[in-house]
């Protein structure tokens, strides 16, 4: 069995002591062991990043960008190998893994614009012989804690931008599928990144707490569940750190009576069942305005759910692979059990799916509930599995109230041909990312990603312009060069241009 190491100061470092198994979700077999860092190992990474920071912060942004250009090229050249690593440990299909990587590469492309995005602002003659400007300066040593469901994309949301802004980075990836994350980080070193600027340390809560408590770590980025997001935000800010912590979601799709139903069904299939529902932007609730559209949705979507091609993620041409772990599979099945017990109508049941040749894999088939009500746990909780719930309402206003009353506010969408309804929805819905006839409204890399309410803790969203703001501090400088041989009396009133 292989052992997955840490990457510290440009070198692979074996773990000391504790480790955790890494599984192939398609077969159920343990394929590797990953070291779980202790405090001493984490401190090695912190010390390496701290030592690398002075030289890196003084490296010209254009030179930092050149490294990112080479990194982008290496990512593209190694696309197939990265996708295979993702699929082997996460379970998502090869096509889905390639799509994930491509969205990550978009963020590297944004980081390549470092000389432009780090330009300050300049004003000449704000007063007599006085010029003023602002400067975006790096924070220092920063860290990211990333989830299992996007082992390539979410880290690429964070460290390329943090690094081109002049910071040094410590990444704590998920211990469930660490191989692709480590491989990608080593590609950045191959691109010419100096030692210590990026460090990857595998671990569990002990590693997270070490980052939270380390005074050298000035900022923390996190993507994961809401309880952990809230914990990291609370503990990090209490210690004076800058924190952005993205949490859970319960994303609703509203289907209006005038929706283009064929296209809406296709969109829902991908948004609900793609990546086995293990996406924070997955659509897990279809809110149908009126029984007519609900009945039509059920009629059209059931055959497509039953026709899903499900199998080992490492195979091509599939729609869906397994869930990431046996515990995740059992949790999803438990939610389906609860939905039945609480009175929802189980239209398609995925609990008994068996994939021939992969009988021990962590599979759950596409599942559909109808007549779901807001007090049911399949409605209130983030299931993170291939389960779609249909809720029936009488009006758009009722649909919007339902969404606005939910504790999460990550993503939502509306399917309609009515511009007035779409505009009302966009204006009044209390959700951070909104789609109109777009089921997964994930912003492109030059915008920013983040939800509202208990889906985000912190003031700044991830990547894009908010990412630049998060990973830099603005310094305002006012400079005066008085004329030679001139002398002015002391001025005791507060200075102004009035």
Automatic annotation (TrEMBL):
Limits of the Aldehyde dehydrogenase domain: 16-477
Listed GO biological process terms: L-valine catabolic process; thymine catabolic process
EC number: 1.2.1.27
Native species: Ectopseudomonas composti
NCBIfam families: MMSDH
Gene3D superfamilies noted in UniProt: Aldehyde Dehydrogenase, Chain A, domain 1, Aldehyde Dehydrogenase, Chain A, domain 2
Protein name: methylmalonate-semialdehyde dehydrogenase (CoA acylating)
GO molecular function annotations of the record: methylmalonate-semialdehyde dehydrogenase (acylating, NAD) activity
Domain of life: Bacteria
Transmembrane domains' residue ranges: none
Top-tier EC class: oxidoreductase
Keyword NAD: yes
Keywords: NAD, Oxidoreductase
Leader sequence segment: none
